[in-house]
Design a protein that fits this description.
Length: 623
């Protein structure tokens, strides 16, 4: 009875406007009652046997049952089209999937090379295998040393987590140590933020301090986490090489040789009720720590935040009642009308698929996104937030920003800022981050990303100023070289003129004084020698000038200077700059931007660490 009353209380129509189509049925019903009453009035005064003959529609009385059948079919069809529903369906996007939080130890001991190439590299390879095997489920990545920091929050995109592995190194951590409780607290915060009740915590580390066992057990019980620990390293240990050279030393100057206490770690994990395994070359450690079967209490519903009020439509079952009525309407000869129907002009065709009958566009987009087809998902989604997320995943950042612009929440503005930053619109990205912070001033991701964009803008402005200064210096050098060339040409012309004047004077003197011809002939060789010396010096100067210009051009080409190089010819025609000069300058600027995601994480972790220190000045790191 309770189930019946519950169904009646929840009964409603999914498409109630179709009920307006009952008005013609009500008119037909009223007409049938009127006709019945009219026949009933004649029966009171005329014999029923004669009445069938006297009435005009007497021979067609056998056809009268078709009208009630038509009325009944009309009622059933309209109710089916209205979509009766009284029971909720399981969410189409509801999937039983586990939530996995990976905590990676980034203390300096992870650089030890007792496992080749190093403990950290082997841990990266193993995590890449784990992420590649996770086809579904929520995954998050946390790194910890003296403190814990979130690299990626809970997400069903394991590729994003995998792409961050190469940037992880002990040098990005603001403080050193092995603070596993801080990592568990960060994992608990991720679960609460994502609305997840329980999850599995996979710790990849080379130590589990005994002093932390009690606190770790308490945090695991209160945080809804089950512990799995993957031990990295050997009992023998090895020195820790430093990036700048040498090995890590203690306060006494001795070389630190960290060893992994495998039996102690196994006992600590067993006391916490978790799973333990050493790092192996095959996948046996993964099968031990992350079994395929998932307990029901670890299931996570990732569809509650996407869809709601999904009711089971009973219209298809109700429409089955129309089949008997349709069979009663069959008459011989009706099939002959089918060829005539085929000759009728067809209406304009519209794109239609079978799945459109059973899935909404958002549901189809969710399936396409789960199938790693974000481009198709972006075309299917009707929700602006999900359409923007799909377009962002497909690399269509401009379309993603346009979709996120329809949102009115801080998350929508934050996502729009990310998309604009990816599209290269840094100034617009700052405005989007400001809008997000105006709604939610404590949004840490928006604060961090805004600072990064500000730094990029400042760097871009500095690059532009440097380019302008270099262009001005280049123009000044060109002007100086042109002036030097003009001076050299003027000197050469003056020298040629003086030489020609001296030769003319000598010829005139020889004609006027034949007796001095012998003396002039004797003096000619010294004069010709002087002319040859002057010409040789001029050629030597031109050669040196040409070599100097070629050396400057070679130096500019070697340094990748995209500006226009000096002309090699001394022609008076103006040489035009290359058409792609701006593209070359932009490419040169992009090459100078450091592609170092580790530096971004280092700054982000340092900022978080400073905020924690400011909030808790008395808190000390666990070493």
């Amino acid at each position: 009875m309770n189930a019946t009353f519950s169904a009646l209380s929840q009964f409603h129509f999914l498409r109630p406007l179709w009920l307006l189509a009952l008005l013609p049925a009500l008119l037909l019903f009223a007409w049938l009652l009127r006709a019945r009453n009219r026949r009933g009035a004649w029966r009171t005064v005329i014999d029923p046997a004669l009445l069938r003959v006297l009435l005009l529609d007497g021979p067609g009385a056998a056809r009268r049952p078709a009208l009630p059948l038509l009325l009944c079919g009309w009622l059933i069809g309209v109710i089916a089209l209205a979509g009766p529903a009284w029971e909720r369906l399981p969410q189409p996007l509801h999937r039983n999937q586990d939530a996995l939080v990976i905590a990676l130890d980034l203390s300096m001991s992870m650089r030890a090379q007792d496992m080749q190439p190093s403990r950290l590299e082997r841990a990266r390879f193993k995590l890449a295998d784990i992420l590649a095997a996770r086809r579904e489920g929520l995954t998050a990545l946390i790194v910890y040393a003296g403190d814990a920091h979130v690299v990626t929050p809970l997400s069903d995109d394991s590729h994003t987590v995998e792409s961050m592995l190469s940037a992880l190194a002990p040098e990005i951590m603001p403080s050193q140590g092995s603070n596993l409780p801080a990592a568990i607290e960060a994992a608990t915060g991720l679960l609460h933020g994502a609305g997840v009740a329980r999850a599995r915590l996979l710790v990849v580390a080379d130590s589990f301090p005994a002093a932390q066992q009690a606190e770790v057990g308490r945090l695991l019980r209160h945080g809804g986490l089950s512990l799995s620990l993957l031990a990295v390293g050997t009992s023998a240990g090895a020195p820790v090489p430093l990036p700048e050279g040498g090995f890590l030393r203690d306060s006494a100057g001795g070389i630190v040789v960290p060893a992994t206490d495998l039996p102690g770690m196994a006992r600590a994990v067993a006391a916490s009720g978790g799973r333990f395994s050493e790092l192996t070359l095959d996948d046996s450690d993964i099968r031990t720590l992350l079994p395929t079967s998932i307990s029901p209490d670890l299931a996570v519903d990732d569809g509650n935040s996407r869809l709601f009020d999904q009711w089971q439509d009973r219209a298809p079952w109700l429409a089955m009642l129309l089949l008997p009525l349709a069979s009663l309407a069959f008459r011989r000869g009706w099939l002959l009308l089918l060829p005539l129907c085929m000759l009728l002009p067809s209406p304009p065709a519209a794109a239609f698929e079978w799945q459109d009958l059973w899935l909404t566009p958002d549901q189809q987009g969710a399936r396409a996104l789960a199938a790693q087809d974000p481009a198709s998902a972006a075309k299917l989604f009707r929700s602006p937030d999900w359409r923007g997320s799909a377009a962002y995943a497909a690399g269509e950042y401009a379309a993603a920003a346009e979709s996120f612009a329809h949102g009115k929440t801080a998350a929508a503005d934050y996502n729009r800022g990310n998309a604009l930053a990816r599209a290269g619109q840094l100034q617009e990205s700052l405005a989007a981050y400001d809008a997000a912070l105006a709604v939610e001033p404590t949004l840490e991701d928006a604060i961090a990303n805004r600072k990064l964009v500000e730094d990029l803008l400042k760097q871009q402005q500095q690059q532009q100023q440097q380019q302008q200064q270099q262009q001005q210096q280049q123009q000044q050098q060109q002007q100086q070289q042109q002036q030097q060339q003009q001076q050299q040409q003027q000197q050469q012309q003056n020298s040629d003129t003086q030489s020609a004047n001296r030769q003319g004077d000598q010829q005139a003197a020889a004609e006027n004084n034949p007796a001095g011809q012998a003396q002039q002939d004797e003096s000619s060789p010294p004069q010709e020698s002087r002319n040859k010396d002057t010409a040789a010096q001029r050629e030597e100067q031109q050669r040196e000038e040409q070599q100097r210009r070629e050396a400057e051009q070679s130096q500019q080409a070697a340094s990748g200077d995209p500006r226009r190089q000096e002309p090699q010819a001394t022609s008076g025609e103006d040489q035009k700059p290359p058409v792609d000069e701006e593209d070359q300058a932009l490419e040169q600027w992009l090459r100078q931007v450091p592609d170092d995601p580790g530096a971004l994480l280092r700054r982000k972790f340092a900022y978080e660490y400073q905020r924690k220190r400011a909030a808790n000045p008395d808190q000390e790191n666990v070493r």
